[in-house]
Fold these 3 entries.
Entry 1:
Amino acid sequence: MPLGSSPFNGSDSKRQRPLPIPRTSAGMTTFTPDSSTVSDVIPSANYGDRNKGRLPDMIVLHYTGMPDVEGAITQLCSAGTDVSAHYIVLEDGRIVQSVPEARRAWHAGVSSWSGEEDINSCSIGIEIVNRGHDWGYPDFPSRQIAAVTALCRGIMLRRNVPSHRVLGHSDVAPARKKDPGEKFPWHSLANSGVGHWVQPAAIVRGETLKLGSIGDDVRDLQLALARYGYGIPATGKYDGLTMEVVAAFQRHFRPARVDGIADRSTFTTLHSLLSSLPAEALAVAAK
Ligand SMILES: [Zn+2]
């Protein structure tokens, strides 16, 4: 803090910046927010009906991946972009809702989890404002994480979303997406009952499976990842997709090293997660 300045100088320093409301949203019908944590409603033009009335039982977390919040809100709310999310969480902790939870927002794209492919129909999408890997990938401020946690807790209670169905975009689209990324503090959310988490096993030297490996060990790894929910066939070949799925797993559950190589720590962490899942969660994915 510069000499002579004080956090208590006048009220202006505490006043929050007004939210950037895209012109295209100005005439749109507003709605009552679903969550008491919401500070502003900025209706998006981009949404539809959930397929066959599917009720959401999953939360997908994203980062916006854009240089500034104005651009992100414009992108998520303006007609013609074909993208949206139910919620946008700003760096200062304010929460904007732009699609009612009852509607299908367009956040996940081509995705899959536990054998289900229309992730937009079964999920609630939350965009967390962060510039992302292409723009320096800053840390997530603690106020923002507290806001995401409170929002998720409310959704989980109201919608009966189990912890193991709070996921990252990279989990449901590992070949295309990295968000919210390895800096996202999943362990802090888990301390508040949001998301499934076990302490990652320590990284040690030893044998690994990696690109080019072939055999039953690779097949067992693929089956274990699929049992957890990842969209991966059991081919027995450690191909590009296997590497991307392992990297997505590490980004979420073993963030100390994200290299797409299945080392001992990756295996151990995956198996502790599987053994701490409720039985009904395992029934779906194994095929
Ligand atoms: Zn995303």
Note: The longest strand covers residues 58-63.
Entry 2:
Amino acid sequence: MTDQPAGVAQEDALPPQPETVQRLRPTADLATAPPVVESGAPPGSGDLTQELLRSDQWTDQMLATAGIPVTDVPLVSVGGGIGSFVTVDYLRIAGVSTDRIKVLSNLDFAWQTYEYLTRVSQIPKPERIRSDSASRPDNIWGFPSYALAESVSERTFAPLWQVLVEPIFADYYTPKAGRVFAGLERESKRIGWNQMVVKGQVRMVRKRQGGGYFIILTPMAGSTSTKRLAYRAEFVHLAVGYPGLKFLAELQDFRTKHQDFHHVVSAYELHEHVYEAARTKHLVVMLRGGGIVASRVLQRLMDDRERHGLTTEIVHLFRTYITSSHGPNAWNRRKGADGFAYQGFNYPKSVWGGQLKARMRRLEGDDRATAYKLMGGTNTPYRRRWQAQMKQGRNAGWYRTMAGTVDEMRLENGKIVSCVKTPAGMVEVAADFVIDCTGLEADIAEHRVLADLLQHSGAGRNPVGRLDVERTFELRGSASGPGVMYASGATTLGGYFPGVDTFLGLQVAAQEIVDDLARRGFCRRIGTFRSIRQWLRWARNKQP
Ligand SMILES: Cc1cc2nc3c(=O)[nH]c(=O)nc-3n(C[C@H](O)[C@H](O)[C@H](O)COP(=O)(O)OP(=O)(O)OC[C@H]3O[C@@H](n4cnc5c(N)ncnc54)[C@H](O)[C@@H]3O)c2cc1C
């Protein structure tokens, strides 16, 4: 496993990657790494020359002079994660053959980063993910639902019953992570995903003089004779996922000062050693954050306590402590208690097809930024099991919550002491481990490909600072002759459609992109008859 964060390119010579999950290490940990100095390579070397590095538009001749081999392909998707996967899935269903698409990615399989992040944040295969069957990334029709599929394969009515009585008499039904991965694997084989993937690290996308784009790939070490490969494409799709993770300043200062990446960890890093240590001795663990990841980590600590008879104490710090239902008015409220804000899914349902969706499509500038702020805020689903466990912990005194912000962290007698500014004054909390579940995302410019786009290809930022895309997910300002660049996923949050960083959001984006490409004559439109015919092929596991 490399220690490089997904999407934060510090590459240039990619080592062979036996297990290529890219660990999302908080970007600030890389701050001590020497900056990448960009100086051009000599012409004919197969690498980026000074002329290429500084030109906003490239000619075919510039690539030839540099000695970089060029491959023509009509459409390139950059990233190769779930965003690329669902877009390519739509394209295949819209009649595009595998030889007209290339997916440039550092992943071995499309759900690799997702599987890694869910696993380390305590959603291993047998556990249930947050979203329901509103979206199946392996099935654009969403039928049969995950609940129906689980019911049939496990010969039980329980999932169907749960769907019938949720959320009043049962928690929302959501599928097990393992089922989601298995579905993705099946669909990946069906659409010929591996035939389209080229492994490596994308370095940049630049406009081509005369139309279209060049995409520069640093291939796997030893796989080619030149350091770079170029793809010449009319259409580009960017789905590079999270630009990187960011730690809160005081956590970062502590890690840098003490070079301690063991006792202060992010929930998005492998931190199994914390649970292992808890099995060997009494521990105090400080948790920070109030979202689903904090709930999952908390559940793991509580489960282990119960299962192995441990004595772990948990101090849970919330920056914003929610005590009751809250919101701007009687119609727009979210439930809350004991620190948490509760919401079944990470967006209100009307985002997907209701009034909110329609309203967001009309909002511009500050109005859109304000609307995002209103519907935002950390939240987690209300699950009965978690409630029972927390209640037991509160009563017995091993689970304590507090509200505040940390001013400083120091090391004292082997403990990490956090100085917490609370409404009642300063409180010091000593813990053996601190698990940060705040999950701040880094700025898009931390991602090398996106930084290059902002600098050279006319891409701009939306009202919340991410990539500015049209309603069709075209990257505004980056058109190149008949060529179009699209973007989907977390890097486009803040656009006309809010739920971009979810399976359903990625599918909505994919549908918009494929409709736009159909208008431009690249593929067929997925109309009623094609859709029915293609679903029948999906059901029989036949290629599109
Ligand atoms: C813990 C957790 C739980 C979640 N649970 C849910 C859920 O229950 N339901 C839901 O709908 N959503 C969920 N999500 C969100 C979901 O994971 C994302 O919507 C989805 O995975 C994003 O897909 P993506 O393609 O944008 O990013 P990814 O799947 O991360 O793929 C992008 C990949 O591009 C690659 N890449 C980046 N830069 C380059 C480059 N320069 N060259 C080559 N490759 C590059 C990286 O490997 C990167 O991982 C969850 C997210 C997390 C973190």
Note: The chain is about 30% helix and 20% strand.
Entry 3:
Amino acid sequence: MKCSAMFLCAVIFCGCIAAQPATSSSPDPRRIVIAAGTLFDGKGGVLHNTRIVIKGTKIVAIDPHAAPVDYNLRGLTVLPGWIDAHVHITWSFDKDGKNAGPAAATPEAVYRAAGNAWATLLGGFTTVQSVGSAQDFPLRDAISRGGLPGSRILTSGEPLSGRGEQTGTPEEIRAFVRKQKQAGSDLIKIYASGGMRQGPMTMSQDQLSAACDEARKQGLRTLVHAYRDAVRAAAIAGCTQIEHGLGASDDDLKLLAEKGIYFDPQAGLLLETYLRYRQNYAGTPFFPKTEAEFTSMESILPMNHELMQRAAKVPGLKIVFGTDAVAGAHGHNAEEFVDRVRDGGVQPMAALVSANSLAAEALGKSSQIGSIAPGLEADIIALDGDPLQDITAVRRVVFVMKGGVVYKNEPRKGITSPPPGLR
Ligand SMILES: [Zn+2]
């Protein structure tokens, strides 16, 4: 099942340890005050000239008179740490630069995965949901224990891969879901269709409905890889979140909105990554043999833009932020904001909220992350620039705090140009 899961994901192309790391200047390490000139609360609200008070891992107050100030972030845009609802954190290139997939378990691959989590955190993403590899478990747990710096990880572990009748009977599928829960999965990942451009559903409505129903009974969310008819089927099955979605009709999108199902179409980073790293992906399992064959992917980008533009116009549709980050994309997740705003017709504030409070809601974690408010985790980032005026400010993350610990503090010294190959 692991192998076919990789295949399906790959075919997307065609289709308090850290005692006080950087905060030792604070007189009381357990209480930190951040001054902000412009503060986005993560729900679409903007505050000016205020201060955030943090104790331990949590925000305890928003108080313009709090003192003394430990971090002066005036002149920057301060907002909650971002959440990426769809990554493959363990996916990397091997020592020869070739695509190693998300399931590699060599010592080198394990260190590379840890590096991905570190790069993703420094890119401003304090939480990610990684979907499709059992290799995520030890990384999730090491970061959670404080043994490694990195984004907070939720994971599906091994996915349920649609393979027609071989997927199993509804009872067998329910047993698989329960097994995943026992293994410690935070959610269930389901591949219900093939790649971007062709192929019917890879599981029946009954199979898909059994998977999402059993997950619900077990208190788990479901995230479904779906194109074309699989989008409607996943909506009928009452799954939690639908990924990709090329081929969805306006009626399908309206159905998602009516049922409150989260929708996560990607606007560009994934394909840009495959195109940029074509020599690294070419000839590896399930990818084209030659670099020249990757050119066909360029024609899919406008289809992604069209879908995002259409989705952005559907009233009430909850479009959540997920990049599908694979090898080459880790740390550059914020490029997807640029794609969504520049090419997908999404308003800048809506794009940002989709990676803050809306993403937290989609992960069932609104009471813990995704907003800047008393009682929530102190996940706070700052950008050099105003993303409402210029969305490329998301590339200039100059401050990162996760759970009250500062991992990056480089005011006004951020990267100002996109990585090569990303527009
Ligand atoms: Zn994926």
Note: The two ends are 36 Å apart (CA to CA).
